[in-house]
Amino acid sequence: MLIHTAPRRAAAVLGALLAGLLLVLTGCSTGGDGKGSSAGTHRPSATSTAGGRSSGDGAAPGWAKGLPTVPAGRLPAEARHTLKLIDAGGPFPYPKDGTVFGNYEKQLPKESRGYYHEYTVDTPGARNRGARRLITGKHHEFFYTDDHYKSFKAVLR
Asked: Which portions of the chain have biased composition (kind: Low complexity) (predicted)?
């Protein structure tokens, strides 16, 4: 039993060290909104591009892996509301919110199962959950789709 748990512990320690290094290298960014952060708030390690530009106008964070980007402030109001719910840890209006997103369409960077989670973004006039979602990554990455997983933008916060 010890043989199987030692590599897992080593991987967990290495992951924690890498996450700490990433925070130091990115300057412990709070997203540049001047509000700071509160306990329990999850934020990605990147800020929006200069002037709030999107879709490749400036340096995208490494975790975006070449995807177009969008500043959180430019998302639809319903998506910004969902971001606030995610930051607060809920409550979420849909039972599927927070469930594992499988990335079966392979539009997001390849990661192990359980890395991504999905949240519904309300669509005005939709009779069901609609096509809009926010996907979060284990390292506080955020991705937005408005076409039910056909395309994504990395959300800069």
From this structure: 45-60
| pLDDT of 42 higher than 80 | no
Is 57's pLDDT higher than 50?
A: no
pLDDT in tens, 69-78: 999 999 999 9
Active site residue 148: yes
**Contact (CB, 8 A) for 136 and 92:** no
DSSP string, 27-89: T----SSSS---TT----S--PPGGG--TTSSPPPGGGTT--EEEGGGS-HHHHHHHHHHHHT
118 catalytic per annotation: yes
Q: From the candidates 78, 111, 118, 139, give the one annotated as an active-site residue.
A: 118
- All residues at 6 or more sequence positions from 46 whose CB lies less than 8 Å from its CB, including other chains: 26, 29, 60, 61, 63, 64, 156, 157
Assess whether pLDDT exceeds 50 at residue 41.
no
Q: Round to whole Å and give the CA distance between 29 and 36.
A: 9
The counts of H helices and E strands in the chain are: 2, 6
